[in-house]
Amino acid sequence: MDPDVMNPDLSWPGIVVPIAADRQELSWEGLVLEDQLTVQSYNIPANATILVFNKIKVGISIVANNLYCEVFVYHGTTVGELKAKIHADYGVDVAHKVVRKENRNLDDRATLWSARVVEGTVLLLVG
After folding, report:
1. In whole angstroms, what separates CA 36 from the centre of its chain?
2. How far apart are CA 67 and CA 59, in angstroms?
């Protein structure tokens, strides 16, 4: 088993999660499971469904601040949520700013997946 690909702590008989541990986020019934706790800490029943989200790294070039940052998000993250994360993590004012990909403004309601944002994509925050 390649330790860079699979986390043996997340392998159950017949189930393997082929996502590096640092790129996973687990969720059960809408609750994000914290890394420092075990699955047993949450008293999750045996027949429960645990969702595994794959984090992707996206670069953001913030034109007004002459700043470049990288954030970990999910394909299901919306552009608006990405802007909120940039504001929370870096203190950048995102009001009245737009996210651009390849000279195209992205709608705040669009998911990164629908905008074809993948691992390593660099976006611009302008306005």
Report:
1. 19
2. 11
pLDDT on residue 5: 44
C-alpha closest to that of 19 among 28, 32, 29, 9 = 9
How far is Cα 58 from Cα 41, in angstroms, rounded to an integer?
32
Q: Is the pLDDT of residue 35 over 60?
A: yes
Instruction: Domains for the chain: give ranges and CATH numbers.
Output: 8-54 (no CATH), 56-126 (3.10.20.90)
Query: Is 79 exposed, middle or buried, given 0-12, 13-18 or 19+ CB atoms closer than 10 A?
Result: buried
Mean pLDDT of 62-86: 90
Sign of the dihedral defined by the CA atoms of residues 89, 80, 60, 65, in that order? negative
pLDDT given for residue 15 in this prediction: 64
Radius of gyration of the chain (CA): 17
